[in-house]
Design a protein that fits this description.
The structure is a homodimer of 212-residue chains.
Chain A: H1 2-6, H2 10-36, H3 39-46, H4 50-56, H5 60-79, H6 88-105, H7 107-118, H8 125-148, H9 157-173, H10 175-180, H11 189-207
Helix pairs in contact in A: 2-3, 2-5, 2-7, 5-7, 6-7, 6-9, 6-11, 7-9
The structure holds a DNA duplex (18 and 18 nucleotides).
Chain lengths: 212, 212
Amino acid sequence: MASELTRTPRSTAREGREKAIFEAARSVFAEFGYKGSTTAEIAKRAEIPKANLHYYFPTKEALYRAVTEDVLNTWLEAASSFDESVDPSEAIAAYVSAKMDMARQDPIGSRIWANEILRGAPVIGDFLETTLLDWLKSRETIVRRWIKAGKLVALEPRYFFYMIWATTQHYADFEGQMAALNGGKPLSDAQFEAAKAQVIATLLRGVLPSGT
Amino acid sequence: MASELTRTPRSTAREGREKAIFEAARSVFAEFGYKGSTTAEIAKRAEIPKANLHYYFPTKEALYRAVTEDVLNTWLEAASSFDESVDPSEAIAAYVSAKMDMARQDPIGSRIWANEILRGAPVIGDFLETTLLDWLKSRETIVRRWIKAGKLVALEPRYFFYMIWATTQHYADFEGQMAALNGGKPLSDAQFEAAKAQVIATLLRGVLPSGT
DNA sequence: GTCTATAATCGGATAGAC
DNA sequence: GTCTATCCGATTATAGAC
């Protein structure tokens, strides 16, 4: 019938509401952390009654876990950009660039991660000890190979990755501080691109041998 | 009398309890942020009844403000280490070293700051826009002078300071993540000193002209 | 000054009407 | 599927005994 053809399919309506709740939850969890967030505030930002939220996500923790899992998947996607080149300077530039773009496009995801670490990582602790550690170890091997080949100065790869993570995620996690120092306005696209270019340049200069 | 001489003076007893509450509050606020923290948990960690806490600090917010103000003072103390030398390489090394030591010795202070920024800096916003911005501007002037004198490569000073802040504070804010990647144990003193030396070396190499 | 008891409110979750 | 009404434990804060 007409109603069958014109109305939004049931499953799509559900997906739309779930997505609204999900996005609202992301913004609240990013701002207040798990404990400081309330289902009432999430429901308010999703513009639905609180009870309705509990219909789609039975508990606050289930909603938090769904949000967190999504953040980890996004992180892994960006991580893959490290592999796309064999030359250290290209690999590092591509990875840092991807992480900077991620900080710009999805600062909320980065903040959810930061809040989770700050409270002791009760939910993503396993991910850190397994998937993340595996990723890190395998990339450390690549970096050590570069060092042996004289393509990179001698350094402990792990602390170099920490430096990359810190610097890039700072543009997401401390966006508010940067805005306060920028006349109350977030970095413009031009400012951000300048920052990104400088971060890449300083990091590369810091680890590539002289005269490269 | 004997009791006058042997017992802890009244003011000292008060100071001791205030300090216990203060330290407990620091650890709780650092872990859960303002909203996620409860006065009950703070009282528990201070090992006093909850009502007693409210005697010394009338409200949760008053306690939070006291804790936050202390963090800002500590930050400013470390900031002064940037001035102690005129040579860029020495000034930068001294500042980064001081910030790294701060991250190691007072990670809680750094985490309180991070949590405050993550929720939009409602309490320290004024500090950021006035004192911190003034500090940053004056140091940018110094850095620009070095660049003009050929002592530093061309760069936007602000993003360089962001890089220093990000990298050093990462060792406080993401200590939990680093521990998870280090077999569940925090960085040893030796590991931390190696990281600190590498951070300084990479940053200096990244901004000093070739052959310095 | 200290602490027990409690008021007042908030927050997570559910029952049950529609 | 949706939402109003509500339960009940948690949380901030205070009153008032000691």
